[in-house]
């Protein structure tokens, strides 16, 4: 673990349950100043719940235990919008339909700073301008429904960053947009984060996005950490079969992450790989109320052995800041994606 002074956000033993059924099962991680941490994993892994727990915004009916502290302070709700802010999947849910966008940004400014209405309004227009909204003065007077999807998401990024928080949490911030807009909006998010010096916790199932934007990666499966570490280490030499499976389902160019840094398309290794069908991981993740005993990934794992079916793996250290929860992590081949590729 890093020295406490280097940690901005600290999560320890986080558990989240509905009606006694745990969807997040003991998660611990840190976020350091200015770093981008990606939470990845298939649908249902518990990524969104974890993201919401960081903001003290769990859904109704959820019970939680463990600790989440921002600069040592556990009162997350009091820090929301000020030191930690959310960019949600669906921009409409973050914006009120009955107020002009500029007014909403100005209200966000005035909720934390004692400034005049005029000054707050000027900051709102400047924030809209910074995220690339054309004719920001006029657009500030428009309502969310008068914005396109991409513009709304930019406005939400402006809203999340306007008070220069320490941490921005973005939960699949571009899934509602088409591919070209996704790229643009991610660039805006990255630039704004950089500009205000915030750390970013990015929930995504898009591993291409992770490669482009993340410093560290936390891979989740069935509410648990499978692997966590510097992005270059986790992608360059994944130690958990599940991480390898996620990487194996990327298109070949992206899939080269788990190789030897060789992007030469004439290399026999890549040429061979292109001839093979790119698989996804067979089967699907278990529901929280139907977890198998032992390692939750065991029923889908190509390296499964008897012990995996009855004993949950504990985290092991695979390198500097690189943790993996797998009984057989030191037997995972390199490149690990071979575990999931069909023979040529
Ligand atoms: N409001 C809720 N009520 C009951 N169960 C819930 C609720 N929200 C989440 N869950 C349970 O928690 C699990 C994890 O949900 P979560 O939204 O965190 O997954 P995720 O990894 O973000 O997946 P996705 O990529 O589909 O959003 C769900 O599969 C579901 O079983």
From TrEMBL:
Span of domain ABC transporter: 9-247
Keyword Membrane among UniProt keywords: yes
Name listed for the protein in its UniProt record: ABC transporter ATP-binding protein
Region (Disordered): 246-294
Membrane topology note: Peripheral membrane protein
Family to which the UniProt record says this protein belongs: Belongs to the ABC transporter superfamily.
Pfam families: ABC_tran, oligo_HPY
Keywords carried by this UniProt record: ATP-binding, Cell membrane, Membrane, Nucleotide-binding, Transport
Compositional bias annotation for Pro residues: 282-291
Coiled-coil regions, chain positions: none
Ranges of compositional bias, category Basic and acidic residues: 257-267
Chief localization: membrane
Compartment(s) where it occurs, according to its Swiss-Prot or TrEMBL record: Cell membrane
Gene Ontology MF terms in the entry: ATP binding
Superkingdom of origin: Bacteria
């Amino acid at each position: 673990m890093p020295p406490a002074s280097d940690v901005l956000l600290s999560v320890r033993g986080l558990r989240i349950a509905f009606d006694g059924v745990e969807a997040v099962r003991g998660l611990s991680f840190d976020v350091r100043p200015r770093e981008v941490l990606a939470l990845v994993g298939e649908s249902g892994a518990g990524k969104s719940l974890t993201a919401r727990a960081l903001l003290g915004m769990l859904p109704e009916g959820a019970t939680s235990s463990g600790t989440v502290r921002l600069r040592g302070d556990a009162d997350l709700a009091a820090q929301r919008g000020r030191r930690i802010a959310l960019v949600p999947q669906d921009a409409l849910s973050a914006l009120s339909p009955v107020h002009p966008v500029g007014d909403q940004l100005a209200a966000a400014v005035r909720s934390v700073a004692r400034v005049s209405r005029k000054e707050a309004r000027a900051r709102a227009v400047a924030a809209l301008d910074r995220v690339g909204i054309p004719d920001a003065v006029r657009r500030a007077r428009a309502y969310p429904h008068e914005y396109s999807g991409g513009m709304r998401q930019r406005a939400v990024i402006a809203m999340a960053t306007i008070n220069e928080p320490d941490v921005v949490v973005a939960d699949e911030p571009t899934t509602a947009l088409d591919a070209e807009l996704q790229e643009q909006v991610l660039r805006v998010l990255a630039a704004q984060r950089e500009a205000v010096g915030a750390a970013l916790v990015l929930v995504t199932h898009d591993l291409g996005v992770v490669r482009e934007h993340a410093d560290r990666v936390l891979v989740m499966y069935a509410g648990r950490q499978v692997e966590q570490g510097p992005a270059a280490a986790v992608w360059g030499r994944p130690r958990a079969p599940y991480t390898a499976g996620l990487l194996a389902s990327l298109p070949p160019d992206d899939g080269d992450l788990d190789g030897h840094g060789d992007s030469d398309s004439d290399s026999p290794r890549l040429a061979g790989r292109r001839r093979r069908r790119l698989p996804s991981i067979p089967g699907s993740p278990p529901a929280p109320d139907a977890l198998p005993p032992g390692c939750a990934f065991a029923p889908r794992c190509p390296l499964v052995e008897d012990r995996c079916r009855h004993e949950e793996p504990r985290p092991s250290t695979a390198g500097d800041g690189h943790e993996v929860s797998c009984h057989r992590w030191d037997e995972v081949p390199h490149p690990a994606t071979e575990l999931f590729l069909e023979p040529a």
